[in-house]
Amino acid sequence: MHDSTVRPNKKTPQQQSRRTFLTRWLQWGTALAATVFLYPLLRFVGHRIPPKPRLVEVPTPLPLSGAHAGQDFFLFAGTDRLSAVSRVCTHLGCRLNFQEDKQIIECPCHQSRFTPDGMRISGPAQKNLPQYEVTVKEDGEGKVTAYVVHL
Ligand code: FES
């Protein structure tokens, strides 16, 4: 006897289509779940803790102009001013010079100019110079012994 209507191992085209549909849904769902869960993990792994500021101590007395040219910064500590700015040009990174007679910071490479506060005056540089925090160290009598620049 041969029963042609019962085919236990063969799937009908409708059953195969349903199986394909469910398999695709499962694949897409797995991909979506992996994205949802992996994205925060990858963000966490890629997270960087900002480095601690480098502290540079400049002992007093400063020159009469009140300007000190460090390796990476200018410190201006006059009677009416206390500031520090980067010594790296924001155009292409040349080391800047302070023109004491003109009271400007000038780049020797392409002549960008900045104020002692780091504001751009002219030249190809488009950004102001980064400013740094400065703290004052005093002795027990209130006399300034050093300036600390937070790079
Ligand atoms: S690098 Fe300073 S102006 Fe170009």
From TrEMBL:
Record domain Rieske: where: 50-139
Domain of life of the source: Bacteria
Species of provenance: Desulfobulbus oligotrophicus
Gene3D superfamilies for the chain: Rieske [2Fe-2S] iron-sulphur domain
A Pfam family annotated for this UniProt entry: Rieske
Any one GO CC term of the record: membrane
Names of required cofactors: [2Fe-2S] cluster
Keyword Protein transport among UniProt keywords: no
Membrane-spanning intervals of the chain: 25-45
Protein name (database record): Ubiquinol-cytochrome c reductase iron-sulfur subunit
Keywords associated with the record: 2Fe-2S, Disulfide bond, Iron, Iron-sulfur, Membrane, Metal-binding, Transmembrane, Transmembrane helix
One Gene Ontology molecular-function label: 2 iron, 2 sulfur cluster binding
PANTHER family associated with the record: CYTOCHROME B-C1 COMPLEX SUBUNIT RIESKE, MITOCHONDRIAL (PTHR10134)
